[in-house]
Amino acid sequence: MNYFYNSVRVYQGRGCLSELPEACKEALQNEMNSGILLLVWDKSVLEQKGFQKLMEEFPNVVVEECSVSNPEIKDLFAIYQKTLRFHIELVIAVGGGSILDLGKSLCMIRDEKIASVEDLRKRIAEKNYKKGTLRWIGVPTTSGTGSEVTCWATIWDTENLKKFSIETTDNYAYAAFADSKLTEKLPTKLAVSSALDAVCHAVESYWAKSTNDISKIYALDAIRAVFTALPAVIEKRNLKIAAEILSRGSLLAGLAFSNTHTTACHSISYPLTMLYHIPHGVAVALLLGGVFKLNEPMISNLPRLLESFGVESIDEIQPLIEKYLSAAGFETRLSKWGATDASLKEAAEKSMTRGRADNNPIPLTTENVLQILNRIKE
Fold first, then answer.
1. What pLDDT, on the 0 to 100 scale, is given for residue 15?
2. Is the pTM of this model over 0.85?
3. Residue 332 CB neighbours (<10 A)
């Protein structure tokens, strides 16, 4: 049996942000005096006409700038505290995955009385949160996270070398706006790492234990889209067209894994980001070739998946990924990021993320994870 559910109203295409005010009216049932929180990475994005029109039509818009990567529990608590003094009924999160995750997480805790960072840490660890009264709208400014159409958010606790997932179907956005006008001027490094993150979302959804035929369709289209656009990104040509293709690919990948979760690449990547500060998109991408080989016996219709990459064998996957990472200026060997034999063993031991490792079609062990890591060490 196949089952697929996603409740997000999706707007995708260059210029679609012009529909944001109308979507807000629908979300707030035409209550024009309702409080709206605009949570943004950078206030310069507010120059977009969609946001200008929004602030003209809604008098009670509060803008908060929050430039954090890989949001920590302390970052979420800070936003929670900072916005308590405002009457808010809708959150619009504008940015990459970090800002989208903060926005959706805020909606889950905003109605709670939380005394401290430690209190919040305990609630998240115990999954002691419930559906809040706030709706949220996601507006991605990168093409890779898919967070605008998923129902979970990643919150980090690097002090304790942990990563948490706030996960509930109550966390789906009211609407998502994937407008490629917001992603046309991304730095090459960010464009490539985001795009390869989307590839991993799609591939992992394809082979996940929890996969379904609908997610597989989204996944294959997402992978094709990304590898169609990446050459133009590297060569800095036709960037408006490339941005539109990547925006669509990222959205499709998000829809794919919104129903399946991710698997080994993401599970193993988390300690790489915590221990070596490897950007998330780079960390997951570097693992793709090794995990592909591990999962080969359990991948259904392997030729169809390989075709979406434009290759004929699994052995071509890792060189393809590393070609784009290198072209964007990233190191592709873990030793260059500071990995040692001892720390890789620690990374392998911390790779068994619940809901990700156990969703992989081949069981993960410290030994086979260490083999994957050692292949990309030197």
1. 97
2. yes
3. 18
